[in-house]
Fold:
Amino acid sequence: MFHGKLRIHTCRVILLTSLVWFLVDVVILSFYSECLGGSCKKQPQAAALNAIEDYDNDNLQVDENFVSNGHSSGVQSTYKQADLKRWRPAPTVIPVHGLPGEMGKAVHIPPEKDALMKEKFKLNQFNLLASDMISLNRSLADVRLEGCKDKKYPKLLPTTSIVIVFHNEAWTTLLRTVWSVINRSPRPLLKEIILVDDASEREHLGEKLEEYVKTLPVPVIVLRTEKRSGLIRARLLGAKHVKGQVITFLDAHCECTEGWLEPLLARIVQDRKTVVCPIIDVISDETFEYITASDMTWGGFNWKLNFRWYRVPQREMDRRNNDRTAPLRTPTMAGGLFSIDKEYFYELGAYDEGMNIWGGENLEMSFRVWQCGGKLEIIPCSHVGHVFRDKSPYTFPGGVSKIVLHNAARVAEVWMDEWRDFYYAMNPGLTFHRYDSWELRSNALAF
Ligand code: UDP
Ligand code: MN
Structure:
């Protein structure tokens, strides 16, 4: 009898203590989550994206009449005059025979220039000498699947602003990215290009760049971070200035191919909460050859929270009825190249401002999208090349591993609930200075 009462009493105490602990935990965790930028910032559902620009697949020329006398007779009449004045026809992009790298071919450096090539390679961790030999307007093959070429997209598509952040990027790779956007994007869809210089120290990225972009046939602005901010905060700065309805992020060493933009924007029109990535083709860091990537891989991650490519499972092929041109749902994205509805980007809470320099933001955005009611897709009809390199060319103030682990820990803490323990288990040496509890938690884990 006495023992029975004691047991009931003990049980009550345990239950009450657990409840109190649970509540404390909830309060602490939600506090951390807020501090870490983990909220979806839910707002009233905006109406489906309004595609206000009248975009006609077959009629993409600028209506010169409109520009010169202020009125238009053609289909372009809904464009704002201010925008139109700045559009000029794109230069014709034809293969220039004799120039290296045309049609995405490899560039070979003669043996006598080997030493120079090696020296220049160190600057950006890619073959800068090769890049400098290739036209900023180089031609590329149309690498799309046949089924993509005659796909019809809605006439009404949103406009996009292209945001390109860079730190000490080479002139030719940066400007080839810009020219490939200009040359291969339908003008009415391209609102502007926003270049964000993340405290570069190279002279060509200063005034010379600002003067150069003034000569371009589309609006291009150069923004600068006050001090080295890292790619995440640099992108946030760029995003703040976006005037288009969709934000398209690109790395500063990309080349967009024929028809890259329409399928991305068309998918967002269908569902504004879809975040879309092109297939990221490979521009060789050795030869600048354009190499088409497989459309049979999607993004995943390991428990160290490194992004990894994995083979698309059969169940996703079944869901797509084995149509390789259909959007491919992907768990995570590589992160450098994607389009997102601008309003949705902010509804999601944008990027985690507490992330430094490089890394982790791609998984963070992927988890954010999935957990905040969106979808992540690779659009196989859209191909953009990217120079993949083996090593990072720039400094990581404070050390690479500290920065990368810091960013990854924020991903784990904010979005992974108890699954974060796997991350800490995989990084036993993790010492995390800003959040002592993290350190304790990771040390306490007995695996
Ligand atoms: N970047 C930046 N600030 C940094 C680090 C990187 O603006 O502190 C830019 C970089 O110039 C590039 C983009 O962020 O345009 C992505 O970086 P990187 O290409 O090195 O990443 P990777 O493609 O190798 O993952
Ligand atoms: Mn890159």
